[in-house]
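User: I'm designing a mutation panel for LTXXQ motif family protein and want to avoid disrupting the core. Could you give me a predicted structure to guide residue selection? Please restate the sequence first so the numbering is unambiguous.

Assistant: Good idea. Sequence first, for numbering, then the predicted structure tokens:
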Amino acid sequence: MRKFAIAAIAALSIAGSGAVYAQYHRFADHMRHMRMNPEDRAAFVDARIAAVHAGLKLNADQEKLWPPVEAAVRDFAKLRIDRANARMNAGPGDSDKPEDPVARLRQRADDMGATSTALNKIADAADPLYKTLDDGQKRRLAVLTRHQGPFGGEGGWHHRFMEHRMDRMMERGMDRFHGGDRDGGPDRDGGRL
């Protein structure tokens, strides 16, 4: 009886965690595809900066080191918001990406250069403050900036995008293992596994 109870609890835990995981990803997908207006973007930046600042609970000496960090983060956020607003305002045929692939590479390189410069400014501004943080403050900083924004690197959205792509690839692989693609059609090679 005890083994049955342990097995039942394990089965419920596994099933429950899968349901929670699926629910989270549905919500994350919805949020990722939601278009924010410029005011919303600015409000979220303000809220995130305020949350990090409040969560760090800086002492008086550390507080003096905060303004350059905040200014550098705001500059980086403005760069990203301006790019997002430009994409949002572009019409279907009004893309800011040139047709020429070499020109697109140059534009991407310029964008990456601007991002690199902005991230380096954050690093330069944050370094003196970071060196004064105690272990608790560093732990809170890591949690407050995990996979998001300039403290956690630009990899936040990229990480979630890649995680989503990997999930989709895994789902497709499992669908093929179970006898075909999601649409019930044949696999790419024309047959079924």
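For picking mutation sites, this is relevant: Residues 2-33 form the longest helix (32 residues). The two ends are 40 Å apart (CA to CA).
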